[in-house]
Amino acid sequence: MRHQLQEKQIKLENYQTVYLEGGVTHLETILFLHGWTIATAPYQETLYLLSQHYYVIAPELPGFGKTTFPTSVPDYNGYVECIISFLTALKLKKVHVVGHSGGGAVGVVLAATFPTVVKSLVLIDSTGIPLGFLPKVALRRLIDFPAQIGRFKFKPTVLFMKALISNWIFKTRNMFQASWIALNKDLRPLLPQVQCPTLVVWGDRDLFVSVKCAYEFSQGIPHSQLIMLKDEYHEWIFYHEEKCVNIITNFVSKVEL
């Protein structure tokens, strides 16, 4: 795997984080937001491929990975405030946002509340619509992840598990808070405020975040597009990197016309 990305540290007003950077700065900027409970590491091949077309930045969200944050983040707006602080520090005024799972939910709030910052939005199997009661969600997760075993690639799977375990051990409070947000917070009232071009991409076998959510996002966000991927699960982005990048580049290139 080719990971010609740089890991950089940045100290912001309320926290310190690291981010992966690739590509050259004169290209269009992709802000990639990783899924909750993990970090940027499992996405490295996807980010590398994206960096062949764009300037890519992928910060670790506060409370996950290598970030330092004094308390757990209370809600989606808390994450967005941190992202705005991050973009301001890097002097980035407009970005194309790509978010997977929990990162997609943060992207929705960012686009709705800071419309001048987000040029386009790609939601990949995103949270943001309440997942339901914890026992049922946990059961769906226990079924969904093993169902992908035949598709696993060794490196991203190891990085996924490493990040997951590390977060639960060292950032337990934030993990519980992030889980509560995903289970209960509802972004549907905000969806009409997302005015940028938006693409919703979903695996039709995603058991963790129901396919029903894909249709609710696409119907709630004005003029959004929906791509449903046949026979794909929640983590398909880790195992079909070229497919993911082709979808993103095709969409962003049309936005830039």
TrEMBL record:
This is AB hydrolase-1 domain-containing protein. GO terms for cellular component: membrane. It comes from the Bacteria. Residues 30-242 form the AB hydrolase-1 domain. SUPFAM superfamilies: alpha/beta-Hydrolases (SSF53474). It comes from Gloeocapsopsis dulcis AAB1 = 1H9.
